[in-house]
Amino acid sequence: xxxxxxxxxxxxxxxxxxxxxxxxxxxxxxxxxxxxxxxxxxxxxxxxxxxxxxxxxxxxxxxxxxxxxxxxxxxxxxxxxxxxxxxxxxxxxxxxxxxxxxxxxxxxxxxxxxxxxxxxxxxxxxxxxxxxxxxxxxxxxxxxxxxxxxxxxxxxxxxxxxxxxxxxxxxxxxxxxxxxxxxxxxxxxxxxxxxxxxxxxxxxxxxxxxxxxxxxxxxxxxxxxxxxxxxxxxxxxxxxxxxxxxxxxxxxxxxxxxxxxxxxxxxxxxxxxxxxxxxxxxxxxxxxxxxxxxxxxxxxxxxxxxxxxxxxxxxxxxxxxxxxxxxxxxxxxxxxxxxxxxxxxxxxxxxxxxxxx
Length: 357
Prior knowledge:
Elements: H1 2-48, E1 53-55, H2 62-75, E2 93-99, H3 103-112, H4 131-135, H5 137-144, E3 156-165, E4 177-188, E5 192-202, E6 208-219, H6 237-240, E7 253-259, E8 274-275, H7 277-292, E9 301-307, E10 311-312, E11 315-324, E12 334-341, E13 350-356
Helix pairs in contact: 2-5
């Protein structure tokens, strides 16, 4: 009996040091991992964002940007225009240098945006018009979380967009190019606060290739509307694209498309039950190119679009497009209108216009 007790005591005495060593090893490992995480994803990213000009291989991680996104969303209300954090009045702007075209990223975009996974390998086809915006995804997140951005990053909704190509986007394939994002202006409206954001891509020769201006709405909670997206009236293209009781043009083309539940084009600020505005515009342009040919959207070209309703997923939608002759009494302009609408909805989700001289 005494021998058994002695053996049990000896086993326990030997076990405690082993368990203690294991616990110390686990704690030490967790501490090292935590320090590595803080250094790589937070401290280094914080230091990088001290500058507005960055190299493409030294951008802050999505982990850090999403931490900033959610923390800023918790401290700000939608629909409010806040003062800048710095004494010196400065609009948010970022420039990324030495960007390069990656075939894998282009394939992923084409597969999700209605072009097909083999689109980059097809002959006589330029890079899709919306692809540069897809490349600016991280820049947009950097802008929304910048200390000088005066709105809450949460709940921003795209209401308008213009896209302009001065040269074929294939120019970006020829070498390192530059991406830039900048806040242009804020406007107070009845629905909330709108902000105009300019995205651009410049070739290695310093020539502007692609430019887009997004108008994002931070909707006021006190504003009530029958539409998820405010219908802001403008005395320009957007008023002329309103639906009327006039019969549709005889040359209208209709194409039914499938709306997937999720896409790689999903963006911050858009609810998961809806398709992204980038997806809607890109699919419309893809269907137009398939049926009208690439010449319709070959540079130089200007595209304007208004987003009127959020597109529910999953489901189906109909893309319509038709040519408009003598647009604005200017016979030299070639105009093509388009829209996308889901069955059961009284107005289209997106209306747009393509102009070529």
